[in-house]
## 1
Amino acid sequence: MLSPTGFGAWCAHEGFRCFVFGFFAEPLADLMALTEASAFQCLDQRLATALLGHGPVVHLSRQTLADQLGTVREIVTRQLKRFEHAGWVRLARERIELIDAAALRSVGTNGPTPP
């Protein structure tokens, strides 16, 4: 452990300062992005965008997607079923095949999906 005085002294060195603050920058930026998305985007928008970011076939569990989106598995599953009903995705165990990327892109930018 480093005392507050020792930490302050080490922060005077640019290399140490860049390492320490760089170490925390990415997780903090990720947390801020998740908070902003949760506050200003609907889950269907966030889910559509997340799916598009993984290519034509997504090999992730519903729980992993929920964790990435800051929600619970049940809600992700319900939304994925809506996407499947609309013909945009095909679902299997830990596999989501994107059928209509254009529709998902539209949801990601414009909002609500069909009921």
## 2
Amino acid sequence: MNSDSAGAVPPQPLFHTNIVPISAERHGGLRLNSESGFGFCAGAATMPIGLAEFEPASTSYPILFTDATPAAPVVLLGMREDWNLFVGETGAWTPGSYVPAIVRAFPFAILGDGAGGRQVGFEADAACISPTTGLPLFDNGQPTGVVHDAVAFCEAVETDLVAAAAFGTALERAGILEPGEATIAVEGSASARIAGYRTVDPARLATVPDNVFIEWRHKNWLPAVYAHLFSAARWVPFTELAITQLNARR
């Protein structure tokens, strides 16, 4: 079914399958349990990140750019599409590893209301939403700090993702992104090939004209460039983790 098909379902935000606008009338008795874990993204092998996330994410994961246009920055979390190596069987994220903002925003997301406006929605079937456990979403019909904080955070995440997209587009236009691929081989198991991504070529980066480089500096993009390059050091621990988990599943 393509986007022009009659009755086509609007695209859902990442990790959402049944997002609905939040309201006191329908959801006044619900609560948010922030301790329910990250099982909802256990199948995410990559994750979009915002511009401000490059530096903290670079200490935990390889940062890559998609091979589609525009070049969107993502962190590498798994070697195949249905397996996030950093989410355990209980839904816990690997201790000490950076948790992307788009994950922390769940189950909330900003929605269009069909009339040019925007409103906050949430995943109605999320495990972290219940009538008995956690902090209330409403108090006497009014949104609590949980909802207000969720709106502010979702808006900040959205703004940062837009900034990251502009950054990726600039790198693509500068011609400094090159295709990459990696193969993880485990003795006695089938190898896993990771492809469909791009990285900054340091040699091409060195040829960027001075006026463009200065423009990037003024836009505060250079820390993100260097964080991306620094994140290449995470390939070795990522590979070791992948091999360890593959061996554990044999």
## 3
Amino acid sequence: MPDGWTQRAENLALPPQVNGLYAVYDGLDSTWWNDARLNGDPRSIIMMQGMLPETLAVDPEVALGTASKVWQVWGDTKIRGWVRPVLPINSARIGKPERAMYQLSAYNDWKFDDAGFAIRGGDGGTRPPFLPGNARFLYVVAHCAADSHESNGDVPDFSSDGSWTIKHEGLLKAL
């Protein structure tokens, strides 16, 4: 590690919180959840526990509460772009595997053409193959299959009712 990086990392400010939930900016009050100018992109506050490796700077209980609030506020209809794959990764990481499987499999936005390629944003507005869409879908599947908050061995317990059987070969945990 280059000189000075450890000192900088140890002195970074903690992520901002409002009423026990993470916020997109420091200095906000709880009304930001209802402000369309501020709440249009929930990625930044749920990626802290999901895409990024675990760190002492992120409180797991605060992250869990924040993820639940994001799911309540945004739900299916407002999720677009990279938020769609971030949600199931976050859900797997915080120990909500059934929510992760729903977010991965039940969205109307995950649409595929007759050749099996992801259609951009579900709108059919791009010619297949839309490789970024395929890549993000496959990344989510791999991430959720190989890396979750709680797993028995290599494969997470995605459903307590046994409705999902997950198998993979050679996937390594992300970060």
